[in-house]
Write a structure and sequence with these properties.
By secondary structure, the protein is mainly alpha-helical. Among the domains are: about 15-55; about 55-85. Helices cover about 55% and strands about 5% of the residues. It contains three helices and two strands; from the N terminus they run αααββ. It has helices spanning about 20-30, 35-55, 55-85, and strands at about 95-100, 105. A two-stranded antiparallel ribbon has the order 1-2. The radius of gyration is 27 Å and the shape is elongated. The two termini are about 50 Å apart. The relative contact order is 0.04.
Length: about 110
């Protein structure tokens, strides 16, 4: 069994397809900068993310997504509260209804 490379912890590996001319240009840029294609791609991604943070349309969509998540979480919390409104959740390891080995219900 192989062990993971220590330098890759917390890193995701992506495979991308580039057209030959784009690959050639990117390789040449990397060579001129004494870097690698990976370096150039990481620079481009960092710049893309930076621009996205300043995009008001994207910020609006993010705010809407956050509101949707908060609404869904509140609805789930309410469902749990309603389900266990009779005094709280059952104690760990206990349940109100148990199944017999043959599938019939028995009450504890």
């Amino acid at each position: 069994m192989s062990t993971p490379d220590e330098s890759n912890r917390g890193v995701k590996t992506l495979g991308i397809k580039l057209k030959p001319d784009v690959h050639a240009q990117l390789s040449f840029i990397a060579q001129l900068r004494d870097g690698t294609i990976t370096d150039e791609i990481q620079i481009a991604i960092a710049e893309h993310i930076s621009r996205a943070k300043d995009d008001p349309e994207l910020a609006g969509k993010a705010a809407q997504a956050r509101a949707d998540i908060e609404r869904e979480a509140a609805a789930r919390q309410e469902a749990i509260a309603t389900l266990f409104a009779d005094g709280g959740e059952p104690a760990p390891g206990t349940s109100r209804t148990r199944r017999s080995p043959k599938g019939g219900d028995t009450t504890s």
